[in-house]
């Protein structure tokens, strides 16, 4: 078996582009199976303690410009896009509910949206593997799934969570400690070292400084490296070499200003819901379906805020320590799908931006609310979003520093998203009212980047097949949130990691 | 406003006493004049190298828990001050209270420009023992523009004589030759650089060439009627300059409890450095605005966050962000950020006949119309304007950027009682929070606030 470091002229079994939730688990799985694999990551490598507990100084967000259009333009950058070895798992919130089985069969059950071309049971099996490998904290008994067990006790509820529990109880809504992809006790992570128990610092989105949070750089990537994989940081992919038979034979990338070429037998493109379709569109490949960039989805992520008499100091504690799944299929809802509610702990700059943008505030009211920071608390949703043909990623005429055209993403809520948003505002306002909040208001927001290289059974309607393989280029596979046929109400990272393991297993089964 | 504490560092062969007259002219300031190891009352400590002297000053700042101070360094002491200022910039614990620097005929971080003859002569004075009376007299005379009054002259000579021989030779043979430039560049702490009008090797030309470029925010003054021993020669004039500089930087002082927390081991060096950087002034060219644009942005600040008024410092910081690397996205219906702001501000001025000159209520009414998509440029107005729909989007960007840049300043964090930056230092275990329930506030949080 050949091992890292590989030379550019070595023909490695696979190049994996991106080291986040989509790329890292499959890198580890392929390496474990004895394949020679190289991961190319655009960003730099971090040690956990290098992360900075400051919202502006944190340097783990993809800040190259994207153009956001449509009636409900979605924010990128720190809102949903990461960079660095570990990708978006460096900054993710670690809120990790499992997808609901009904969400994978939305089309069958509601006539709307799309079905997933894989069974929920199979996905859940991979989810369990991810949870076991990374360590998840959660309740000993999960109200909406009797079969579920979490390895670590739940993190402590902070003030926002306690308020939400109070409000939900008053309304007869079931709430529980949230599944959190972090360890609430010290854990020895094989091939990496000690991940220390979460210390309630509240800065998950700026990067976890004691490795309590699941991040690819402290879990799957060291496992991959221990099994012979090579991770190249600061390596920005520019193009592919494609032979006469239409197969990729090499990946051209730029590292430290130098253009290099890694020869390979297969490519796993795992660059996220924006960069994955953007690269393919820029190269003009793998798009006989015409579906690349279409069906862009972002979760409805509306928040409701209010003021409390008590000092909440919501920056303390794991930010999303309470969940309810009661609203996944509300009665007489008037929409397909549903939403999850979580308690929120938002840091001051993020709050200020949300008030100024999503709540349209300025002047005395904005100022007063910011001064009230320590007495504010909020709850928010992650709501399903249907795929719509006109919500899409296209290429702008403007080019980036690498000569690639920038992404333009047009996103508008349609009737279903508006209905979810309306319903959620009412529900959350009622919860906050029952919890004792005053001066309650909502902040409009959407989150995550989903669906731009959808998977499906039919090459006319999908970019990749049910195993993640391109219908056009047989040795190109895609694994990240771009392959999701529908958005699911659950936050995406856990599902992406599970899909990543599955993609690797299917590839290994088909190829060897 | 509380005036910062002044911390004085003396020159080679001197002691804290060299500042006695200057301090007499600064009755409203708390003044602390140190003896460096090997000099004054600490002569028996022998030679401490440059790093050790800087450690000594940093330890003093920590021991005294200085939460607002200006470091004043004369000659040799200036090199030490610059190195400690650089350490404060890099986020070293306990130095968050360093607000300003005054360099007086200061030795630079690079090798000191002194002729070989002069260095050899001064080394020769200590060849066989401490510097003798006659050589000390020569030294004082050579470093003054005119003879000092007798009592001062005697004091200056006595300080040379009592200096440790090791310390004297150590500085001349090593300390003054050490090159610390890599550690001392781009210091944004506001500095006042003072040169003696009749100084020699460390006079105006050397100060401009060797010290001025290291400081991003520096004022430069020449004191007439003085050579190198300015604190003895022109104490009143020097005290006036120091007081003015202290008053300027006092405006950037943070509440004492906040500085204490920021300087503590609960905060990582990277976090501390990033936060402190935002307390330093930004030069106009770093902001990227024209004077008129700066006025308009400051007026927008006053509308979005009225308590700030027309805050030009924040307007500059917003300019640096707008002209900087960007935050990952923009509205597709707006041009790139710099162009959007340029056109937005131009449209605002065209609509209002000069936005900054309007009354606050007129400004408010215009922004309300813009927010509602009812005000902007018509079709025939050219490519340098924004339409009403674009203006509404741009005003969203304006609100968000103002709120974001203000909220990120330590002053704002102090104002809202935020301590979420103090959740993990650079130790093996991060502190985080132990108590997180409503109204359950930890002792260190209470302690911090009780002092305010």
Automatic annotation (TrEMBL), chain A:
Residues 82-300 form the Glucose-methanol-choline oxidoreductase N-terminal domain. It holds the Pfam family GMC_oxred_C. Residues 387-499 form the Glucose-methanol-choline oxidoreductase C-terminal domain. InterPro entries: FAD/NAD-bd_sf (IPR036188), GMC_OxRdtase_N (IPR000172), GMC_OxRtase_C (IPR007867). Keywords: FAD, Flavoprotein, Oxidoreductase. Belongs to the GMC oxidoreductase family. PANTHER family: LONG-CHAIN-ALCOHOL OXIDASE. This is Choline dehydrogenase-like flavoprotein.
